[in-house]
Design a protein that fits this description.
Elements (H helix, E strand, L loop, with lengths): L1 H11 L9 H10 L7 H17 L3 H15 L2 H17 L3 H10 L8 H17 L3 H7 L6 H14 L2 H11 L12 H16 L3 H15 L5 H7 L5 H5 L1 H6 L8 H5 L15 H8 L11
Helix pairs in contact: 3-4, 4-5, 5-6, 5-7, 6-7, 7-8, 7-9, 9-10, 10-11, 11-12
């Protein structure tokens, strides 16, 4: 047993397992996991192995490791951070119910950095979206105004036909109108077009008028010039009745996917590190004592 423990330590603590493939490293760890050291050293072994598994999309195996950490080992802020990590892995693995469970398991009775609270709130809302519960998803992020929250609102609105929500969120995501005769980027062009379609489907003529006034000249320089002019003209019963034509102008893009895909990379652990004294008050003052449940 002593020899096995030393061999395990060389592999997973000293790093020799890095020469193995992630699935091989996981399989061997799983067979001898009782040899994993207790305390911080063992925690780092598990987290490091989980990160390797996430990078190669072995999400089920990574989730199993992180679940053990959240449920039985981690405490305080680190538990909340790992719970967010686990929730994101569950979402990437198309398991939104388990994402909600991960966030519930990792609630803690202490203040958390605002960034971590918002992260957990966004993940909770995305889980409800993926479960087909748009009203609950929108309620969860009702207190957030940041760019990621607007991306998520836009996704929810477009997916579930909440066109007023989608239109307002998409408008909030647009860059300022160009001051010179310069066409917007292709991505910005499609966002403007999606906003126009959503506002039209929401029967929001004032919103369409503002969009046309702000972006009409720029959109006239793009391949979508005619479509934008059609969609942003004065609403008529004929135009409103042709929902298929309107929606055909909208290119559905998962705007929130960039946020979620960032969890496939090695996660920045800044949220788990102690804050400098000068920042601690500001970063935690508005955070609730539980882990970001903003419903």
């Amino acid at each position: 047993t002593g020899d096995l423990a030393q061999a395990f330590r060389r592999l997973y603590v000293d790093g020799e397992a890095s020469s193995m493939s992630p699935i091989e490293a996981y399989a061997l760890f799983d067979e001898f996991r009782e040899l994993n050291p207790i305390g911080e050293t063992g925690d780092q072994v598990i987290k490091g192995l989980a990160e390797r598994l996430i990078e190669v999309d072995l999400l089920t195996e990574a989730g199993e490791l992180l679940q053990q950490q959240v449920e039985f080992r981690a405490q305080g802020r680190e538990k909340a951070r790992l719970g967010a990590r686990l929730a994101a892995v569950r979402l990437l693995d198309a398991l939104p119910e388990l994402a909600i469970e991960a966030l519930e398991l990792s609630q803690v009775d202490e203040s958390l950095p605002i960034r971590l609270v918002e992260e957990r709130t966004l993940l909770e809302a995305r889980a409800f979206q993926d479960m087909g519960e748009p009203d609950q998803a929108l309620a969860v992020i009702s207190g957030l105004d940041g760019r990621e929250a607007n991306r998520l609102r836009a996704d929810i609105g477009q997916r579930f036909g909440r066109w007023g929500v989608a239109g307002r969120a998409l408008v909030n995501l647009l860059d300022p109108p160009p001051v010179t005769q310069t066409p917007p980027t292709s991505r910005q062009t499609q966002l403007i077009m999606n906003a126009a379609v959503a506002l039209s489907l929401a029967n929001d003529q004032p919103g369409l008028n503002r969009l046309r006034a702000n972006f009409g000249d720029a959109m006239a320089l793009t391949p979508l010039a005619d479509s934008f002019r059609l969609v942003t003209r004065e609403l008529t019963n004929a135009l409103m009745a042709d929902l298929d034509t309107l929606q055909s102008q909208m290119q559905e893009v998962d705007l929130f996917s960039d946020f979620l895909d960032s969890y496939r990379r090695i996660q920045d652990e800044a949220a788990a590190e102690p804050l400098p004294a000068s920042d601690a008050g500001a970063q935690t003052a508005e955070a609730p004592p539980v882990a970001g449940q903003e419903s």
